[in-house]
Automatic annotation (TrEMBL):
<keyword id="KW-0949">S-adenosyl-L-methionine</keyword>
<dbReference type="InterPro" id="IPR029063">
    <property type="entry name" value="SAM-dependent_MTases_sf"/>
</dbReference>
<protein>
    <recommendedName>
        <fullName>Methyltransferase</fullName>
        <ecNumber>2.1.1.-</ecNumber>
    </recommendedName>
</protein>
<feature type="domain" description="DNA methylase N-4/N-6">
    <location>
        <begin position="13"/>
        <end position="78"/>
    </location>
</feature>
<dbReference type="GO" id="GO:0032259">
    <property type="term" value="P:methylation"/>
</dbReference>
<dbReference type="GO" id="GO:0009007">
    <property type="term" value="F:site-specific DNA-methyltransferase (adenine-specific) activity"/>
</dbReference>
<keyword id="KW-0238">DNA-binding</keyword>
<dbReference type="GO" id="GO:0015667">
    <property type="term" value="F:site-specific DNA-methyltransferase (cytosine-N4-specific) activity"/>
</dbReference>
<keyword id="KW-0808">Transferase</keyword>
<dbReference type="GO" id="GO:0009307">
    <property type="term" value="P:DNA restriction-modification system"/>
</dbReference>
<keyword id="KW-0489">Methyltransferase</keyword>
<keyword id="KW-0680">Restriction system</keyword>
<dbReference type="InterPro" id="IPR001091">
    <property type="entry name" value="RM_Methyltransferase"/>
</dbReference>
<dbReference type="InterPro" id="IPR002941">
    <property type="entry name" value="DNA_methylase_N4/N6"/>
</dbReference>
<dbReference type="InterPro" id="IPR017985">
    <property type="entry name" value="MeTrfase_CN4_CS"/>
</dbReference>
<dbReference type="GO" id="GO:0003677">
    <property type="term" value="F:DNA binding"/>
</dbReference>
<comment type="similarity">
    <text>Belongs to the N(4)/N(6)-methyltransferase family. N(4) subfamily.</text>
</comment>
Length: 434
């Protein structure tokens, strides 16, 4: 019999994000401790492969590597590929970061690039500020993103070095700080300035200081990790980890190649995962083969209407079908149109992704999914139940479900004020076996 998993609450706690972790303040499905307890209690055999198909900021791959396990992380957002890659930087690299950053800054100072008139940074910054930021980015790319990562179809982000990824994360954080005036009350949303609004101007010294401060902080946090590692005599060697840029609805994984899945799929709460990383996507502009809007459309949970018409599928299960029928008939504006179509898109992509994930799992393998429910107006979208049914339709058995009540919902769904509905949300940990 498979060992019983130790399941802690998957509730995120900002206060726990300190030290090295503090530099990765991206929306995470669950905390590091949750993943650590779970993976340790699974007592997986040596060489077992762990997969997170929606790896985001890379909590699963980080913890798996720390425990010496082999892992694969997938995400469609290039920003998340870089963030997850940076998080894996070995503490032994701590000393190299600062001299590298100093060289990069001095090159950017002496020769700021001529800016392309379409540069996405111009969305927020005045040309001189944008040019200096682009200069830093270009120098990270030139000095660290070797020819290994370049191919005729662009840059292979999957192969980017941990050091380059870390310097990108330091630049992301500097830009996030600069664009703070455009943050809204929704923490996952950064707005674009209006046509008439002035773009931001920051002197080179300010941009350089923000970047250098981040690099210094990251280097110090890594060095602290190194000290802690040395105290633990039997620290396992980090396992191999692959971070791949891919769309889970069409990803190709070898059948039966994965022992254990630990993941938190995109929620159906209108979180736009690309809007949350707009400024980072602007920094990465020259490395991207798809524009931010096209990328947003491919995301599960996209707020854009799908191009193709989609029909309810039997593989989505009964709960999903009932929910969609009620949503289509809902009297409120745009329910039967825009909202119905974006929900169809969500479940279609989700079902196709779970099918691929299930195919990749070995017989006897396990898949742990952290899923949150939500409301559409007064309609309960019981996503844990829907995902359970989709899993079963694709050959998985639901073995256990643990529910945790959250006081607030990560939700920008309409109707929060107009309709009576319970406060908070339920976050469920679904444990499947194949
Ligand atoms: C809930 S977050 C995962 C959080 C992750 N557990 C962490 O620790 O940060 C969901 C992730 O799914 C990604 N995503 C959305 N649609 C995707 C798709 N079609 N293929 C792959 N990844 C996708 C988003 O970019 C986002 O990073």
């Amino acid at each position: 019999m498979a060992p019983r998993l130790h399941i802690l609450s998957p509730k995120r706690n900002k206060r726990l994000q300190t030290g090295w972790e503090g530099f990765f303040p991206y929306y995470a499905g669950f905390p590091e401790l949750f993943a650590r307890e779970l993976l340790q209690s699974a007592r997986l055999p040596r060489g077992a492969v762990i997969l997170d198909p929606w790896n985001g900021s890379g909590t699963t791959t980080y913890v798996a590597s720390d425990l010496g396990m082999t892992s694969i992380g997938i995400d469609l957002n290039p920003v998340m590929i870089i963030v997850a890659r940076a998080r894996l930087l070995p503490p032994s690299e701590a000393d190299h970061l600062r001299p590298l950053a100093a060289t990069i800054l001095s090159h950017a100072h002496s020769a700021p690039p001529t800016l392309d008139s379409n540069d996405a940074l111009l969305g927020w910054f005045e040309p001189t500020t944008a040019a200096f930021i682009r200069g830093i980015e270009q120098n990270i790319r030139r000095s660290l993103v070797g020819s290994m990562t370049k191919s005729p179809d662009g840059i292979h982000l999957d192969k980017i070095s941990g050091t380059a990824a870390t310097l990108y994360v330091a630049l992301f954080a500097a830009c996030r700080k600069l664009v703070a005036p455009f943050r809204s009350s929704n923490p996952t949303w950064l707005r674009m300035p209006k046509e008439t609004e002035a773009r931001l101007v920051a002197p080179q010294i300010t941009v350089a200081r923000f970047f250098a401060d981040n690099v210094r902080g990251m280097s110090a946090a890594l060095a602290t990790k190194l000290d802690a590692d040395l105290l633990i005599a039997d620290t396992p060697r980090a396992g191999e980890c692959k971070i791949n840029l891919s769309d889970t609805a069409s990803m190709r994984l070898d059948a039966g190649s994965v022992d254990f899945v630990l993941t938190s799929p995109p929620y159906c709460t209108r979180i736009d995962y690309t809007a949350a990383t707009r400024i980072e996507l602007a920094v990465l502009g020259p490395l991207m083969s798809t524009g931010a809007r096209a990328l947003g459309k491919k995301m599960i949970g996209s707020t854009q209407v799908p191009s193709a018409s989609i029909e309810i599928d039997d593989k989505w299960g009964k709960t999903c079908a009932h929910f969609l029928e009620a949503l289509k008939k809902h009297p409120s504006k745009a329910s039967g149109g825009y909202y119905y179509r974006t929900h169809l898109d969500y479940f279609d992509k989700m079902s196709r992704s779970i099918e691929r994930m299930s195919d990749a799992l070995k017989p006897g393998g396990r898949a742990i999914l952290v899923v949150q429910d939500s409301y559409y107006k007064d309609l309960h979208n019981d996503l844990p139940k829907v995902i359970s049914e989709i899993g079963v339709k694709h050959g998985l058995n639901l073995k256990r479900r643990e529910d945790f009540h959250l006081r607030s919902m990560s939700d920008i769904n309409p109707g929060r004020r107009t309709y009576a509905r319970p406060s908070g949300a339920t976050e469920s940990v679904l444990c499947f076996a194949k």
